[in-house]
């Protein structure tokens, strides 16, 4: 089962994050086979790290808890105590490393849209239209990975998560902000964060 984890950094913890970088990487090495996407998020200045997102395939609830709460940054207090954990569906069926993108790479973003409670049935009715908007629209080639956020049992729709390469922050907000789900008022909120590929070939996450 695929899960999205989003950990938000506590203010003033960048030095501790940097100190724990190798320990963080070593922990993630144990999940390399199931890793779909990973990387740090940034504030509008493009420099201030605000969190980390990981999308990973895990076998059971125990593995989910271990991934979220035994990770070195979380144990040391780099992250806020509450971690966003959601089942996730891989609409494109790929990992972030399969994305070719532009050369040189453009700005990249994490886009999280949180569903209004009780909107699953309305979402289902608009699913095909939303899919066309994302997969056939002007930014279809910009999608790195995307998919729905779901409840643990997969029965309830809780939102949408996208990693994408887009011209700027406004375009990132508009990708879901102008979507059929948004026009039907199914999203309670949409947040867009600067993001980059994480891992040992980066100096972050």
Automatic annotation (TrEMBL):
It holds the Pfam family YCII. SUPFAM superfamilies: Dimeric alpha+beta barrel. Residues 1-88, 108-191 form the YCII-related domain. It comes from the Bacteria. InterPro entries: Dimeric_a/b-barrel, Sec-metab_biosynth-assoc, YCII. PANTHER family: PROTEIN YCII. Belongs to the YciI family. This is YCII-related domain-containing protein. It comes from Embleya scabrispora. The lineage of its organism: Bacteria, Bacillati, Actinomycetota, Actinomycetes, Kitasatosporales.
């Amino acid at each position: 089962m695929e899960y999205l984890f989003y950990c938000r950094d506590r203010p003033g913890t960048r030095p501790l994050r940097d100190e724990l970088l190798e320990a963080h990487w070593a922990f993630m090495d144990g999940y390399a086979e199931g890793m779909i996407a990973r990387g740090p998020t940034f504030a509008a200045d493009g420099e201030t790290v605000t969190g980390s997102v990981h999308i990973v395939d895990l076998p059971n609830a125990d593995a989910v808890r271990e991934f979220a709460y035994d990770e070195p940054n979380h144990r040391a207090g780099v992250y806020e105590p509450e971690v966003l954990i959601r089942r996730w569906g891989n609409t494109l069926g790929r990992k972030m490393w399969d994305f070719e993108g532009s050369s040189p790479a453009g700005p990249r973003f994490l886009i999280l849209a949180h569903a209004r409670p009780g909107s699953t049935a309305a979402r289902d009715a608009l699913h095909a239209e939303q899919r066309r908007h994302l997969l056939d629209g002007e930014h279809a080639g910009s999608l790195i990975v995307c998919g729905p956020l779901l409840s643990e049992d997969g029965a309830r729709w809780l939102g949408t998560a996208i990693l994408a390469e887009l011209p700027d922050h406004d375009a990132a907000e508009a990708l879901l902000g102008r979507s059929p789900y948004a026009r039907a008022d199914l999203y309670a909120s949409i947040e867009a964060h600067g993001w980059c590929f994480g891992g040992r070939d980066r100096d972050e996450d």
